[in-house]
Amino acid sequence: MRGFRSMLYPYVVWSFIMIVIPMLMIVVYAFTKEGNSVTNILFTLDNFKSFFNDTVFIEVLERSIFIAVITTVLCILLGYPVAYVIAKLKPASQVTAVLMITLPTWINMLVRTYAWRGILDKNGLINSILGLFGIGPIKILETGFAVILGMVYNFIPFMILQIYNSLSKMDPSYLEAAADLGANKAKTFFKVTLPLSLPGIISGITLVFLPAVSSFFIPKLLGGGQYMLIGNVIENQFLTTGKWGFGSAISMVMAVIILIAMYIARYIDKKLSVKGGLD
After folding, report:
1. Is the pLDDT of residue 4 over 70?
2. Residue 279: what pLDDT?
3. Which of 73-87, 116-130, 262-276 has the highest mean pLDDT?
4. CB of 204 within 8 A of CB of 165?
5. What is the 3-state secondary structure (H, E, C) of the chain?
6. All residues at 6 or more sequence positions from 64 whose CB lies less than 8 Å from its CB, including other chains
7. In contact, 64 and 213? CB cutoff 8 Å
8. Could you check whether the bond before residue 137 is cis, i.e. omega within 30 degrees of 0?
9. Number of domains in the chain
């Protein structure tokens, strides 16, 4: 047991240096005035007041939440059928299908997102295909559609894998029982399959919504700086304007939103686990 505990020490030290200390620094910067010396730190809420009193930043926050919600909904609508089909395949085929889903994630997300610029550009692949039919060129890059497309592309594997895990663990006897009771395929799906897969959907929502709401490089690459989200605002405050206090305050606001979202997801997941799905 002592040997096992000693193996945890490097991880604890690494977590403290790389996670705890930066978080404490963000809290300190958020609640103190810029330019204060270490020995003369003054507590203030000015950074938070500046954020909530500026309608532009509030609009950016609302837009970020809206984009994250749209991305999550699209990932569910597109990912559930894929996960359902994979779960119905033979075990060997399931392994291959899951590998195909996860294969793009082996490439750096920044590289994958940048590749979409060439696809969506005015002279890119999509407009070249449309040009064969006498359509276009259509402005796709640097639009809200491009940003949502990039987010769905990057985050949908997480949704598919979570739903697939729930579906693959489902007891087939439930489906047989529903068929014996006279339920058709549609009724069996909505009364049995969908409720039992809801924990996977909730986990997928968590894994998609949280990174989507705080993403900054996808809007930057595919939005071209014309479609700013809250992650871009935080990046600008730290790297461009140098207002670390204001950037830290926005980061804390986002942290609270993320914690609330995680609590709601965990609460719903716990309720579903107790009830075994929806009634």
Report:
1. no
2. 45
3. 73-87
4. no
5. CHHHHHHHHHHHHHHHHHHHHHHHHHHHHHCECCCCCCCCCCECCHHHHHHHCCHHHHHHHHHHHHHHHHHHHHHHHHHHHHHHHHHHCCHHHHHHHHHHHHHHHHCCHHHHHHHHHHHHCCCCHHHHHHHHCCCCCCCCCCCHHHHHHHHHHHHHHHHHHHHHHHHHCCCHHHHHHHHHCCCCHHHHHHHHHHHHHHHHHHHHHHHHHHHHHCCCHHHHHHCCCCCCCHHHHHHHHHHCCCCHHHHHHHHHHHHHHHHHHHHHHHHHHHHHHHHCCCC
6. 213, 214, 229, 230, 231
7. yes
8. yes
9. 1
Q: What's the pTM value of the predicted model, to 2 decimals?
A: 0.83
Q: Domain with 201 in it: what CATH number?
A: 1.10.3720.10
Is residue 183, in this structure, part of any structural domain at all?
A: yes
